[in-house]
Amino acid sequence: MTPRTRLSVSQARRIALSAQGFTDARPAAPAARHVARVINRSNLLQIDSVNVLVRAHYMPLFSRLGAYDRALLETSAYHPKKRATFEYWGHEASLIRLDLHPLFRWRMARAARGEGIYGGLARFGREKRAFIDGVRREIETRGPMGAGELSDGGKSQSAWWGWSDGKRALEWLFWAGEVTTATRRGFERIYDLPERVLPSAVLNAPTPPEDEAQRELLRLSIRALGVASERCLRDYFRLEPSDAKARIPELVESGDLVPVTVEGWNAPVYLDPQARLPRRVEARALVPPFDPIVWERTRTERLFDFRYRIEIYTPAEKREFGYYCLPFVLGDRIVARVDLKADRANGRLIVHSIHPEASAPPDEIAPALGEELRLMAHWLGLGDIAVPDQSTKRIGAILA
C-alpha cells in the first residue's frame, strides 16, 4: 500500500488482520506448505501448558487453516530431519522459525550473565554453577533426557512450581542456549545439546551484533503486526523497553517503520511500509488467548473495541465470561467470546457459554459460529457439541 500518515480504526484493523493471514482463503486440504506459510508470517507460535481445549501452539494454525493435521506441526517442531522451528523464549515460551536462531543469541548471552531472566533463576545460576555444569555434562554423556531422568535431580523448591534443582539447572541452560528442546514427551520438555538437535547450517550462521538482531526482530514484528505502537512492537518478541526505544528511531530513519496516526490512539503508531490494506476482510475464526492478533490486550481493545482478559487464574465466582474464552472473529470484527472445553473422555466439545458483543445480534452470528464450532469439533476428533448452559440455548439450537 502507499504509505499514509493517518489511518482510521477500520483501516488499521484490516491491515492488522491481513498481516496475520486472516485474509488468506483456507486451503481445502492443508499441507506442510500451508503450516510453513503461517509460521513464516507470524515467526513463532506461543507454547502454553493449558490444555482445556487444545495446546496453545496448535490453535493459531487452526484459526487460519481450518482442520489441519496436527502431525504437520509436530514434524515442523520436532522431526530430526524436517525440523523448521526451535523452542526458545520469543513471546514467552515459543516455537520460533529455525532461521531466526541467530537473532536470539544476544538474549542467550544476556541470560548466561543473569540478565533478562527471572531473578531466582539468575541467582541459582550464580550460586550453583558447578551443579549446572554437571547437568550439562550428563546430557552430553547420556543424551536427551527430561528433568526426572537426571542422576542427581537435587531437592525440590515449592516456590518454583515444585521444580527440583535439576529442573532449574536445565531451565538455566535452556535460557543460556546451552541446551535446547529435542522433543516433548507428552508436554514434558526433553533436553539435549543444540549441536545434536539443530542443523549445523543454523548453528554456524553468523551471530549478528545485538543492536542489529534487535532491529531485525522489530522489522519482523511490524511485518507480522502491520500497524503497531512502540509497546506492541516490543511485546511481540518481548524486547526490553530500553532496547526497543533505542532501535525504533533507527528503523524510522531507515524507512522500515513509517510513523502514522490512528484514529483514537494517543501513543505514536508505526506502519509496515509493505503492509496491505484490503478493502474487505471475510474472516471466520475462533482465536485463542495466545494468538498474536490478541497478544497485546490494549491493541486488541483499540483495534476491535473489545476488552479481553483471560480468566484462567480468576476464581470461578469472579469470572465474567468463563475459564477459557476464545474471541470469535467474523469479517473484520470480534463479534463474540466463546467459553470452550474439549471433553475428550466423552467425545464432546462443550460450549459453556457464548457472549455476543452488543453490536452483534446473536441470530446474525450464530450460523457462522455454528460452522466454526462444528469444524473445530471435527478437527479435535469430537463427535458432539454440548451446550449445557440454559442461557446459551438460543444459539445452541442453531449449533445442533
From TrEMBL:
<dbReference type="InterPro" id="IPR009351">
    <property type="entry name" value="AlkZ-like"/>
</dbReference>
<protein>
    <recommendedName>
        <fullName>Cytoplasmic protein</fullName>
    </recommendedName>
</protein>
<dbReference type="Pfam" id="PF06224">
    <property type="entry name" value="AlkZ-like"/>
</dbReference>
